[in-house]
């Protein structure tokens, strides 16, 4: 029995709390600290014996931590924390601004290499599991098309946009795949579908007293970029219903690759996720990749890495022999 | 532009013909030879300029071939060919006798290591893509259950068993997942399902003249091991219908992992394949892994490998930079 992998968490929002929960399911890991910007006394760890530190203490704790899981956001936190901590720790993060991944990779790669650390970036489900399925789908069926669908899922950005409308007291917005578009993707039809053709939007809105429902509905469905080009449904509900039925951060989606191996012979690969908690699932992916990042580091593979660089077996607590015997 | 990877095929049955087709979709590869036990003049390559050799010539062609794809069967061919050719070539195969994989791995590993070759065994979809999804599902959701379903698929072994019954002139058998069992797996119910609860069997039978349909049906549905414990349907059709509607080697299946990240929070991962040609899809997987095996060899990673050892990015013809920019 080898020593458990010593894992620490930087940031204790929804994602950090999910990582805490995920580590409890992985007996080969030990949570050695939660590092936070908030006053330590405001943090209630899931296990009361988990130490809580100010994030400023991290730099002094390099010898206590095998892998640091960065649980901050992609907009404000990771562009600064990623490169900074990759110089000191093996790290894992869920950087998810797709267009900026090449720059972020380069910014993390240099300090990690210089300090012989392994930094696994952009793990989660998209980017992450969906990326693997997009790359594998294309590699296995080069003559084909890939369709990614998101949902049914709560979209934070669209929910916020609705909440800012005058007369709205509360709201959530769900993105849902259009069933007919999914059937088309599965059928092997090679027509490309736009994001707008593939998704519809459904809002659940609590009105302020005296607000005009039809005016609110109209403002939503005509909102440019967010709703105007989509098939959008608006439902009005009570504050009690909003709290009771729409608090969970559900999400998920589909990656469908359909292609031909010979003329007239269609093959379809489909990967899908149905998540009752988006942050808890992302956290579970981060924890499995923390194991892999630590193993890559032990093998001398330094620098920034992505899910494309990680052999699947390294994510499992099982040995290669065990995996071959039990799961191949 | 680097030189194309020089790929050769050992064995020219359904799988070997599928590999031929798959290589045509991969411009970074070149098919340098088909090696067969049959007289060369009986082979019609898809491209007339593809050289055909007697399999006995393989040993003398080691310097012409970067990767040899073994397209023989797991019962008779691979136990002998796998170790023999792994001493001379980088190899890829689809060895699929699950219970014997550890022994086969050891038998291939020793000669490959001794001769600094890379031998990727048991690639395909099960073992192969399904194995990856079983291992990842368990790693991402340790508190959960995995269910593998096969079908709708033509089963060669069960079709043969029906064909041996007196009075049967021709037959095919399809294995199909039981819809209610699939819904249960997706629902996150943690009850284990047996293979028998998960699958039903459907036979399409052509009777010999004068055969007693009810007696044939009875013999099928009571056949021990093959049918007796399953919900089995028998349909009688004409020889013309058999030839017209049941010639395709369709197959596929599902790997469903459902688990909890915290109490009461269910997460479901589902991977599925719908294949109009089982051998052509398996061949496509072999060809993508041929690329990966060659790259592993170039990186100095010798010995037997499985899909668990291969970073997903190595399967793609795209560079790591390109994958990060386009598919992450």
UniProtKB/TrEMBL annotation, chains A, B:
Ranges where the Meso-diaminopimelate D-dehydrogenase C-terminal domain occurs: 124-277
Subunit: Homodimer.
CDD domains per UniProt: meso-DAPDH_N
Glycoprotein as UniProt keyword: no
Family stated for the protein in its record: Belongs to the diaminopimelate dehydrogenase family.
Pathway given in the UniProt record: Amino-acid biosynthesis; L-lysine biosynthesis via DAP pathway; DL-2,6-diaminopimelate from (S)-tetrahydrodipicolinate: step 1/1
GO MF term list: diaminopimelate dehydrogenase activity
NCBIfam families, A to Z: DAP-DH (TIGR01921)
Reaction catalysis annotation: meso-2,6-diaminopimelate + NADP(+) + H2O = (S)-2-amino-6-oxoheptanedioate + NH4(+) + NADPH + H(+)
InterPro entries: Diaminopimelate_DH_Ddh (IPR010190), Meso-DAP_DH_C (IPR032094), NAD(P)-bd_dom_sf (IPR036291)
EC number assigned by the record: 1.4.1.16
Organism name: Aquamicrobium ahrensii
Entry-linked Gene3D superfamilies: Dihydrodipicolinate Reductase, domain 2 (3.30.360.10), NAD(P)-binding Rossmann-like Domain (3.40.50.720)
Keywords noted in UniProt: Amino-acid biosynthesis, Diaminopimelate biosynthesis, Lysine biosynthesis, NADP, Oxidoreductase
Protein name: Meso-diaminopimelate D-dehydrogenase
């Amino acid at each position: 029995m080898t020593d458990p992998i010593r894992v620490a968490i930087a940031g204790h929002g929804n994602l950090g709390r999910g990582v805490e929960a995920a580590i409890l399911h992985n007996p080969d890991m030990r949570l050695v600290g939660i590092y936070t910007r908030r006053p330590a006394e405001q943090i209630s760890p899931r296990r009361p014996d988990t130490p809580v530190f100010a994030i400023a203490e991290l730099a002094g704790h390099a010898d206590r931590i095998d892998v640091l899981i960065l649980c901050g956001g992609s907009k404000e936190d990771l562009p600064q924390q990623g490169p900074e901590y990759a110089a000191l720790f093996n790290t894992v993060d869920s950087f998810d601004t797709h267009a900026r991944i090449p720059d972020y990779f380069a910014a993390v790669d240099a300090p990690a290499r210089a300090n012989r650390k392994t930094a696994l970036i952009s793990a989660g489900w998209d980017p992450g599991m969906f990326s693997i399925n997009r790359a594998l789908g294309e590699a296995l069926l080069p003559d084909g098309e890939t369709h990614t669908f998101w949902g049914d899922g709560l979209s934070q950005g669209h929910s916020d946009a609705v909440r800012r409308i005058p007369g709205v007291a509360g709201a959530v917005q769900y993105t849902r795949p259009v069933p007919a578009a999914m059937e088309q993707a599965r059928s092997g039809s090679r027509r490309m579908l736009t994001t707008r053709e593939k998704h519809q939007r459904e809002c659940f809105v609590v009105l302020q007293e005296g607000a005009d429902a039809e005016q609110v509905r109209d403002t939503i469905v005509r909102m440019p970029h967010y709703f105007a080009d989509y098939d959008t449904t608006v439902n009005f509900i009570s504050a009690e219903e909003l709290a009771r039925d729409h608090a969970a951060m559900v999400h998920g989606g589909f990656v469908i690759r359909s292609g031909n191996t010979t003329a007239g012979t269609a093959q379809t690969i489909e990967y899908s996720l149905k998540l009752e908690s988006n942050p808890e699932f992302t956290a579970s992916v981060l924890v499995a990749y923390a194991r892999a990042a630590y193993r890559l580091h032990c093998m001398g593979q330094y620098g920034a890495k992505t899910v494309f660089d990680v052999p699947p077996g390294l994510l499992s607590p099982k040995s290669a022999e065990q995996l071959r015997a039990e799961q191949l």
